[in-house]
Write a structure and sequence with these properties.
Protein name: ATP-binding protein
Strand order of the largest sheet: 1-4
GO molecular function, one term: ATP binding
Oligomer: single chain
Structural class: alpha+beta
Pfam families: HATPase_c_3
Helix content: 25-40%
Organism: Colwellia maritima
Distance between the termini: 38 Å
Order of helices and strands: EHHEEHEH
Keywords: ATP-binding, Nucleotide-binding
Strand content: 35-45%
Number of strands: 4
Length: about 110
């Protein structure tokens, strides 16, 4: 298995992305996830909304050189499942972990 660390990168296009194409709320975020299923050539997209789910996660920050853990409770969960082609580790690292990266944007430049 590939042990290279995954890295979050921010593309210079992020300023335009944040201004013009900002996801303005949960409804738009959900729509984007559904569109991703379509883009992955999925033949189905199942969405499950569980309003009873509760999960506690430790928020960790360093204050005055000491690690401080604060539990944060999250309520609700949305699960999305499809049969799209998905992404391998390299594609996740190259595109999904780069804010504002767009393969479509890259293809448009090649076509022009």
């Amino acid at each position: 298995m590939d042990k290279e660390k995954l890295k979050l990168k921010i593309d210079a296009h992020v300023i335009q992305q944040l201004g013009a194409e900002l996801i303005s709320g949960p409804e738009i975020a959900l729509l984007e996830l559904i569109k991703n299923s379509h883009d992955a050539d999925a033949s189905f997209c199942y969405i499950e909304v569980d309003t009873n789910h509760v999960e506690v996660i430790d928020h960790v920050e360093v204050i005055d050189g000491k690690e401080v853990r604060t539990p944060i409770t999250y309520k609700g969960k949305i699960s999305i499942r499809d049969d799209g082609h998905g992404m391998d580790r390299e594609r996740i690292n190259r595109s999904w972990l780069t804010v504002s990266y767009s393969e479509k944007k890259k293809l448009k430049k090649i076509i022009q």
